[in-house]
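Quick question about two entries, pasted in order.
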Amino acid sequence: MKQSVSNVQKAGKPGKIKNSITSLFALLVFVVNGLPAVADTTPPGKPEVIIDAGHTAKMSGATSITGKREVEYNDKLVAQLSNALAKSGFTPTLTRQPNQEIKLENRAAIANSHNAILMLSIHHDSAQLTHLEPVVRNGIKTYRTRTPIAGYSIFVSRKNRQFGSSLAFARLLGHEMLNLGRKPSLHHTEPIPGEGRPLLDATLGIYQFDDLVVLKKTAIPAVLLEVGVIVDKADEAYVSNGKNQQAIVKAIVTAIGRFSGATPGPIETP
C-alpha cells in the first residue's frame, strides 16, 4: 500500500440449475458494466478464496529501498499463494492478472460475483515522508527509513457487511504471522497526516481502516495484509527472501484453513 509518495449436485438437479443461472447473471452484469468476466466455476467441496494483488502496473504503489515497485512484490507473492491454495484444497480466484489494469470497485465486484468464503488483498508497506530520506538505487530515486520500521499490518473495515467474520480471520492471520517470528508494525497509529488508524489489536497488528474500497465494498469477509515495509532495508530483505516468502504463504494458507473450518492439505510452495 502506498502510504507516502509513494480481491455438486448432479446434472439436472435444481441446485445446479440455480447455480448456473446465478453464474450466467453474474457474467451478464460484468459484460454490461465492462468488467472482466470471471465466471464462478468453483469445484464442489473446494472453498473458494478471492486473492487480490494490490495495485497495477500503472498505479504501482510504493517504491522500495531497492527501486523496485510494490506491485512486483504483490504479484510474486500472490502467484505463490494461489498455487499453494490450489494444492491445499482451495479454489483461488484472482481479481487481476499481472499487467492487468483494474479499478478498485471492480475488484470488489469480482469478489461479490462469486460464492467465496473470503477476500484477501495482498500489499507491501511504506511509511510517511517524516520517517523517510531520499536515496538513489539502481538509477531510481526512492526512499529509505531514517530509523527501522518493520513488520506486517492487517486492515479491516467496519463498513464491510461481514465485519465480525473479517475481524475473526484477521485474528487468525495475525496469530500465524506471529508464529513466523514476525512482529506487527505499529507506525500506522501515529497522529500524523496519512496515519492515525485505530488499532483494534496491538498484539496482532490489526487496524481499522473503514474506507479502504476493496474492504468496504466487498460483501464477503475481506482483509488487507501489508506483508512488510519495503522502504526499510532489513524488512525489504526479509520479504524478498525466497524461504521467507514460502513461510509467509504457508502461514496465510494455514489461517485460511482455520477460518474455513477445513484442514488444508500438504501446503506446498515453489
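Here is the second entry:
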Amino acid sequence: MALLNASYKQNRSRARLRLTYNLTCDESVPMKAQVYVSLKKSVLDPQGKTIHGALSKIGYTGLEEVRQGKYFEITLNSAISKTDAKAEVEKIAREVLTNPVIEEFHFSLEE
C-alpha cells in the first residue's frame, strides 16, 4: 500500500507556496502465517474418534471421519521478505510445532 505525503514549502523571495509530493511505500504491515498441524493418516486419532462418536450421538449424520489437529497463527516482522518468511515458518513448523514421526503440517502466508 502506498501513502501520499504532501509537504508545503514557502519560497521567501517570491512569497509563493510550492507543493511537493513524496510517494513512499508503507512497509509497516506485518505478514501473518497460518500453520495447520494434524496427525498423519497412518496414525490413529483417538480424540477424533471420540468427537465423531459424540457428534453421532447428538444427531449429526453423514459424518465419515473426524480428525483433530492444531492451528497456530504467527505474526512476522514487517522487515522480513516473503521468501525468507516462507523459509522461517517452514523451519519453525518442522522443528518446533510438529512431531515429524506422527504429525504433518501445511501453512499459508497472508500479507
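Reply: Confidence is low (pLDDT under 50) at residues 1-26. The CA atoms of residues 42 and 102 lie 8 Å apart. Hope that helps.
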